[in-house]
Specification:
By secondary structure, this protein is an alpha/beta fold. 37% of the residues lie in helices and 22% in strands.
Length: 254
C-alpha cells in the first residue's frame, strides 16, 4: 500500500445532517490523486444516524471509518486518527464544515515550497443551514508565535500541517482550546506558519460551538495562557489583546 501525501481527519458527533457534505468536499478535491489522499472519520459515539450516513462511503478505499464505543471528545478523537494517519501531511476538518475544491492542492504546494510547519487559510462564515452570513475572516501571510499569542488567527478546519509534528504534540486539554495550544507549541518550537488569504474553508456558526459562548471562550483563552506557563500579568496582557482582536475579527471590516 502506497503512502498517501495527506491524511484528512474529521471527528463527528451527531453530525448526520452535515457529515456527507464534509466528506464529499474532501473526496472531490482537485489536483489530488485518489492514492494521495486518506480520509479518517471518527464517529465519537454518536446517538443520531451518523453511522447510517457513513455507510454510503464504506466501499471507498480512501475512507477509514472509526467508531468510539464511548464519547471521548473532539481532541481525543482527533488524536486517535493522528496516531494512525499515514500521510506526510495532516489536515483537519469539522463534520459540519466544508472545503473549496482547490484547498488542499493550494496549501500543499505552499508547504512544499517553504519550510513552514503548517499552513492555514481564510474562512467564510455560514448559518447552520449553510446560508452565507456575508463575512469572511482573513489570515496573515505569515503568523509568528508572538502574533498567535495575541489572537488565534489559525482556524483548525483550514490547517494542513506536517504529520510528524502532530504526532509529536497531539491535541491536549479539550477543556481549553486544544487546537490553539497545538498551534502555539508548534510555532514556538518550529517557526512561523503561513497563511493563504482565500476562504478555502466554509464554517457553520453552530449555537453550541465554543466560539459562540463568549464568556466560556474567554475563560478558556485565559486558561491557555496559564497552561503555556505565563504569570498573571503576562496572561492578562495577552488576554487584553485577544479581546480587542476578537472584536475586530468578528465585527470589523472584511
Amino acid at each position: 500500500m502506497s503512502t498517501p501525501k495527506v491524511t484528512v481527519i474529521i471527528p463527528a458527533y451527531n453530525a448526520a445532517n452535515y457529515i456527507a457534505n464534509a466528506v464529499y468536499s474532501v473526496l472531490e478535491q482537485e489536483g489530488i490523486r485518489p492514492e494521495e489522499l486518506e480520509l479518517i472519520v471518527v464517529n465519537d459515539a454518536s446517538t443520531d444516524t451518523t453511522d447510517a450516513v457513513m455507510k454510503r462511503f464504506q466501499s471507498d478505499e480512501q475512507v477509514i471509518y472509526l467508531k468510539n464505543e464511548n464519547n471521548l471528545g473532539v481532541a481525543e478523537s482527533r488524536n486517535l486518527a493522528i496516531d494512525m494517519a499515514r500521510g506526510t501531511y495532516l489536515a483537519f476538518l469539522d463534520a459540519d464544515d466544508w472545503w473549496e475544491p482547490d484547498k488542499l492542492a493550494a496549501q500543499l504546494t505552499a508547504l512544499e515550497q517553504t519550510d513552514a510547519p503548517l499552513c492555514c487559510s481564510a474562512r467564510a462564515l455560514h448559518e447552520p443551514d449553510g446560508t452565507p452570513v456575508g463575512r469572511v475572516i482573513g489570515v496573515p501571510e505569515r503568523i509568528t508565535y508572538e502574533m498567535l499569542l495575541r489572537t488565534n488567527s489559525i482556524p483548525c478546519g483550514s490547517v494542513v500541517m506536517r504529520s510528524e509534528l502532530a504526532k509529536q504534540y497531539h491535541m491536549t486539554h479539550a477543556e481549553l482550546h486544544e487546537d490553539y495550544i497545538l498551534w502555539l507549541q508548534i510555532l514556538k518550537n518550529h517557526g512561523a506558519a503561513i497563511g493563504i488569504n482565500e476562504p478555502y474553508l466554509h464554517c457553520r456558526l453552530s449555537a453550541g460551538g465554543k466560539s459562540r459562548n463568549k464568556l466560556k471562550s474567554a475563560r478558556m483563552q485565559y486558561g491557555v495562557y496559564r497552561y503555556m506557563g505565563f504569570g498573571t500579568i503576562r496572561s492578562l496582557f495577552y488576554f487584553a489583546n485577544y479581546a480587542v482582536n476578537g472584536v475586530k475579527k468578528y465585527h470589523g471590516k472584511n
